[in-house]
Amino acid sequence: MAIYRFDLLRRILFIYILGINLTLKSRNPVVKAFNLGGVISVPGLNQDGFSEMLHSTDAQSDTNDSYSEIQAVSCEEELKGSGSLDTNCQLNTTLILANDTLITGGGNLEILPYVSVSCPIPGCLISINISGDLKVGQFASFRAGTLIVYARNVSLEEGSSLNTTGLGGKPPSQTSGTPLGTDGAGGGHGGRGASCVKGDDKDQEDTWGGDVYTWSNLSEPWSYGSKGGTRSSQEDVGGGGGGRIKIITGNILHVNGTIFAEGGNGGLRGGGGSGGSIILLTAKIKGSGTISASGGSGWGGGGGGRIAIRCYSVQEGVKIMVHGGESNGCPSNSGAAGTRFDIIRQSLFISNDNMSTQTDTLLLDFPTHPLWTNVFVESHAKVVVPLRWSRVQVWGQISLMYGGTLSFGLVNYPFSEFELIAEELLMSDSMVKVYGALRLSVKVLLMWNSKLQIDGGQDPVVGSSLLEGSNLVALREGSVISSNSNLGVHGQGLLKLYGLGDIIKAQRLFLSLFYNIHIGTGSTLQAPLKDSSKMELITNLLCESPTCPEELIHPSEDCNVNATLSFTVQICRVEDIVVDGLVKGSVIHFHLARTVTINPGGLVTSSELGCRRGMGKGLISSNGAGGGGGHGGKGGPGFFNGHLTEGGEEYGNADLPCELGSGGGNSTSGGTTTGGGLIVMGSMEHPLSRLEIFGSMRADGESSKSIMESQNVDVMGGSGGGSGGSLLFFLQTLTLGNNSLLSSSGGHGGQPGGGGGGGGRVHFDWFNIATGDEYVPMAAVNGTILTRGGTGIDDGHDGKDGTLTGKECPKGLFGVFCEECPIGTYKDVNGSSEALCIPCPPEELPHRAAYTFVRGGVTKPSCPYECISDKYHMPHCYTPLEDLIYALGGPWLFGLLLSGLLVLLALVLSVARMKFVGTDEFSGPTPTPHESQIDHSFPFLESLNEVLETNRTEESQSHVHRLYFMGSNTFNQPWHLPHSPPDEITELVYADAFIKFVDEINSLAAYQWWEGSVYSILSLFAYPFAWSWQQWCRKKKFQQLREFVRSEYDHACLRSCRSRALYEGLKVAATPDLMVAYVDFFLGGDEKRPDLPPRLQQRFPMCIIFGGAGSYMAPYTLHSDNLLTSLMGQVVPATIWYRLVAGLNAQLRTVRQGRLHSTLMPVITWLGTHANYGLSLQGVQVDLAWFQPTASGYYQLGLVVNSVDEVAHTTPVSEFSNTISIEQLRTNDVCSYRQYVPCLGNSQYTHLSSTDRRINGAIINSFTLRCLKNQKDVLFPLSFVLRNTRPVGHQDLVGLIISILLLGDFSLMLLTLLQFYSISLGAFLVVLLILPLALLSPLPAGINALFSHGPRRSAGLARVYALWNVTSVVNVVVALIYGSVHYKIQSTSDEGAQNFHALNFSTEESGWWLFPTTLLLCKCVQAPMVDWHIANLEIQDRTLYSKDPAKFWES
């Protein structure tokens, strides 16, 4: 029972593997047998039975056939044998079956010799499924359309067979395996069937019979072969297609007989059927029999079928065939070979068993996962990959042997691209054809008497072909790789052409990346093809161009195939190149190679492959001989019948020749000649390490052929010879052996009278030429170098010789090969002429020295020498004192050391500054009590009046009015008071005495003429001094005014006796910048006026004039002394007023004269959004206004303080408009009221009404702002560099940068002065003194500013430092101008270089501008740094710039 279950399980597994679904539907299972004369016949079912269903088209659609129920037969009853199928069954009677048969059992099955079991119905199935062995005796057989065998072992004795020949059923649907028509073509399956039809318009290669199918099932082919075609229109007489055989054994398949699934024969009336399918799944195949799925013979042979074998070992004696059938109508064109697929090794075999054919076996889609291991095309098999852009990739090798052919693409459509990827491509007596472009990638490419032929067609769209053999590319026994397009051959190992007939040729040929290339004796590298129509197209690109193509001198390093390059042959990135054979091309280039060796018998040539016309084309005439082509030498004129025809002219560059030679002129004889080509060895960036020539290298022009004797020599002359080409060498060393030859000669003229071609050009561009004591010869020349012109025939003239040149030799060497100059001469220029070696000039010899000889030639104008005594020191024979100057390394090293020292000092100074003044400067503002004397209107600014006057709080209780001086306290705008007393003090003063007081004080405030003159002079030469002078004069003038009022004037203008007696009714004060002054009037205490002093509300509108002038040195500020603070304290708390003043001053510091329209607008906006936001709660409002215009147009800016209620109240302000109020002045277009606008320059201003007359000006708002007149000071052109900015913070970092820039500025200034001192003393003085002390002052000014205590003092000194920095720019600009003129004149003069004086400090002419330009840049960078430094010092409360009014007032 256990054995039975095991056998049953094996049977089920067998059925599953085959994909056969036995449905076991019972339908008349009775099988009847009867005796027909010793032959047992088993009748089949009727037409409605299983057989009809089995052989339907749908049942054959794929390998997983779906069968209806098949009744199993027994050994003794149905098979008429002896024994049992579950033990041992012997068949001893021939059986003819009429339907499908299933033989199954658990034992052995043996067919005795000469016994046959057959089902001769196309597609009929015999299935044997046993657990034991199947043995087929001698000459016994199984024959059916489909044979399936499963057994432990299968043995076929001699003469036995498993045969499905010609019994194939219908092939799969939608296939074209069966040919149409009456041509008698063979059927197709694994290979195409042959067709013997041919005509004038097509070859047999273009016609075929049945086509291939089931390509995708190579590992499990299960299709019938196709029927052959017929030659009769009445009946179908073609051979039947081969059947199917599947054998699965657990151990061994022993074949001494045959296993056939061949196509049937068609005879002379029909085509042969194609082979069927065979699947063999076994462990081993032994024996000496035959397994065949070949095509049948006929008028046209059938194509081979398909065989798949899964076997670990196949004995060599077993012959496996899938060849095409023989064609009776065309014996040389048998059917195409089928396919044999090794499932274990994933290898494909295509062999036609040496049957010649012109019919293709198609290879369609190739698997990508998993990849095949090997592909073998052998024995005249003809394989085609027809699809465009196909990719053939295998793990192992692709082998073509014994006449095998592998083609890619279509003959009539050579526009595709193909890839062939494998480990190895092995070719022996075989061929690969590519119609299009090929990308071949293998590790090993071996060719033995084989051809790889690439036909790119004429379409330029088709890409270049690329063959990559990473380890080895070898051609032997006449192997050829050819392409009529561009071809690249790449690798990393060896490329070797072994001998005679081994050729690689293409239209353009690129060899690259190999370690070694060896061109053996008799082998050839060639491009372009001599007979190609594209040859002249390639050369013509260079023939008419006067410029050298860039890729010839500076080629790309990627070594890729590039059809746009000028090369026809390029060998790139190859370590060693050995030439024993021939390298031939129009433009040959060896690039990125280490050594090139041309052995005896080896030849690298571009002779006769240059231009047929060209720039040096020889002239022609209708009845004279042609002139020779010109190149390096002029072509020889032709002379015939008294006519002289000029030769071609010279062209090209002898020092860098890269042109092709030109052709000679032709006469009416029709003969033409071609110039020599171009050979380039190495490149400028990558020269050859070594070039060894023991053979030849030639670029000769073509010699004209003599005129045929049959032609009339009395009428026409001969052609001129072609000119020589170019040989261009980029080398390190050269060896020309004995009997070696380098030639670029012209060709000979033709007979009669042809002129000789001009010689070509040879040039050696040496790399890294050693000089001095290291000098060694670069060339060992024992051979011959020719550039001679060609010989003229008869009366024709010889061509001129070409040129032989070398790279310009370095100093001390001369000649083509850079030899040493003779002793006693020197050469201080690059060149090769011997005339450049001139005698040493005695004037260059130091007076304490004598000339001496050194090896390698002299390389400087001053020849080598030695001192006449040991007490003098070389090289200048200086005394020890003179040597000390250069002991530190010379001027440049001295300057470098000095610069480094100054930079280090800058860092030290920065650290010292932070230690010394850091706490003093950056501790931030300290809150000040309200009753202190410090001015809160602007941080860290104090009025001079507050320093000397103390008790302002008591004074505010008796204060009546503040009268502001007009003018800005300058030399052209001195302070002065109006003569008419204002209404506020008319009750306190005597009018006449007041006028006298004004006259006296105005006279005292005026400046002397000489004070303004000194200021003007200083402004011209040293503006910082001018500013300091002006400030000193202002201070002095203010002190005079204050002392006058305090002690000298008797106060006679005051009505109060007490005030006159105590000198207390008048006091003079000024803002800290000394630009705005005012007189305060106080009560004496005896006036007995209860309405005096007035309350603050009674003084509204009250004006407060800004200090400063809106300049860099004096920005606008609101100065609020204690008196003003006390007055405002009547309505506004002191803290709010302090905050308002600080915020307003922060905004005013960026206002600039000359740009008032843009810089005042933010202030107006700030007053509306911030100031009045906080003051409105106190019932007060402030507005920006202008005041006190003078006759010259000067006016002052300030604030108008008014109550909110009074602002809303309309009050008449002028006699022109009795309804205009201050509020209307804020909102109306003031430009329409010219009487209020100071920008118009009109001194006659309208007097305001009683309230507004005290303003003596007008409100400034967004409408009136554009009418203000801009007053520009002397620094306005520099306002983009010198300007007051907002603080940026990072004070430590800014100070560090300023310290570094300050000392860097000083270092560059010294170097600049030294540089111009080296030019001349005059240049030094011009740069230093064009503005006296301007270059020297920034350093002390900057040090003084950085190390000063207190932010106020540091900020003021920093502004002076900024002025000196900008002033010194004039000196730097003068230096640049002077240097430009000086070096321009020096470069254009014919005189020699002038000697500099003592320090001998000089720079290259191209870099003289470096120091002054860097100094200018340093000064430009310093300016904004100083501006930020000043802003950080003066504004340390960053909340003053808060955009949120609430946050502003909270702070």
Characterize this entry briefly.
By secondary structure, the chain is of the alpha/beta class. It is built from 25 helices and 75 strands.
What's the overall average pLDDT, rounded? 81
The main β sheet shows up as:
43 strands, mixed
Alpha-beta classification: alpha/beta
Spatial gap, N to C terminus: 107 Å
Estimate the strand proportion. 15-25%
What is the global morphology? elongated
Number of strands: 75
Radius of gyration, taken over Cα atoms and rounded to an integer in Å: 57 Å
Number of helices: 25
Helix content: 10-25%
Contiguous runs where pLDDT drops below 50 for at least 5 residues: 1-67, 707-713, 919-950, 1210-1253, 1390-1405
Key traits:
75 strands; 25 helices; nine-stranded mixed sheet; 22% strand; 1451 residues; single chain; 43-stranded mixed sheet; alpha/beta
Report on this structure.
- The protein has 1451 residues and is of the alpha/beta class.
- It has 25 helices and 75 strands.
- The protein has a 43-stranded mixed beta sheet that branches.
- Helix 10 runs antiparallel to helix 11 (1023-1048), helix 20 runs antiparallel to helix 24 (1410-1434) and helix 23 packs antiparallel against helix 24 (1410-1434).
- The model is unreliable at 1-67, 707-713, 919-950, 1210-1253 and 1390-1405 (pLDDT under 50).
